[in-house]
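In this section we walk through a basic example: taking a raw amino acid sequence and producing a predicted 3D structure, encoded as discrete structure tokens. The instruction is simple. Fold the sequence below.
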Amino acid sequence: MVENAQSKNQLFIDIDEGKIPKRVPVYTWMDITYIMQYAGVDLRKAQWDVDKFKDMIEIGAKSFQSDINPATFTRIQPVYNILGAQNFVMSSEGQIQHPEITGMGPEDYDEMIADPYKYTHDKILPRLYKNLDTTPEEKAKVFAKAFKAHSDIFGQIFAHHDLMNEKYGLANDRVGCQTVAPFDQVADQFRSFTGISSDIRRCPDKVVAACEAVTPMMLKAGVKPHSSRQKRTFIPLHMAPYMREKDFEKFYWPTFKALIEGLWENGAAPLLFVEQDWTRYLDYLNELPAGTQMMFEYGDPKVIKEKVGKKHIVTGLYPLTLLARGTKQECIDKAKEIVDILAPGGNYIFTFDKVAINIKDANPENIIAVNEFVKEYGVY
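The resulting token sequence is shown next.
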């Protein structure tokens, strides 16, 4: 059966509406840097060549047998260059890395809590982006230039995605915007992993207040005019697996749950990237509003299906590492095992456990073989 864009979109719409689709939808995520390496271009140069992004989008659309174009743009180097980013820097090989950097000292909690918007603008951003550490007039110019570049580049990306979806019969991208769990925001961009780990012992009340203070910011970032079940708010979850459960209950969960409930109340359906192993917290996740999509990195698929798969949409769990080193048959056998566990009853989209970033992360031939297999095998 020949499937067009409309029939593939319907697979995901059925999932979002709690119906069992005709077959398991296949959603492969890979950073544009993976596709650039697959195409054989110089990664260090290609991330600057905005005009050639459309070629990479087309290669993603026609090559990997995903129901949605796998080309994902998360880090736009020209914008980071305009801002003078310290928190996202390009390595010698061309990969964008996130070094541990502290944007806020522990002595600044009170100031940040009092007005997180003002503090972020006045203190955090100039520390993370050196070109904003200047006069108000120059800062405004840098902001305007970066915002214009960001808007222009993503405008081109979205337009070409639409063209390629029509040309190759692909479903629409499911991600409409991104936000961050409040505790992760305080940890990742403000205090760093080391800093927040110390703070929850030394000044726990201020950490709680800081998470509460930034929650409205995170909610605002996660709601757009186009937000819907089909255009979801992507949220990568970072810190929870590294915390003791009692610390998770106190510092992470309350504001994270409030954020997710707030998104749903404002018409924005979340898509969570559940990083590392959240087995300890599956019962918490099941408390979230029904229909939340959860892309799991690690865990027992049977337990995850039983704990959250009846209420929520489960994705992930197929090991990217197997695609890197396994034979084609080993990869297909694993796909069958995962689909047999997660597909019954619906609420399942086939994805890998991680986003492919480097060409070494996965053998392209294995990706294609697995995606083709799931499309043929995962019929309800």
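Looking at the output, two observations stand out. Residues 184 and 239 are 6 Å apart (CA to CA). The mean pLDDT is 94. In the next section we compare this with other chains.
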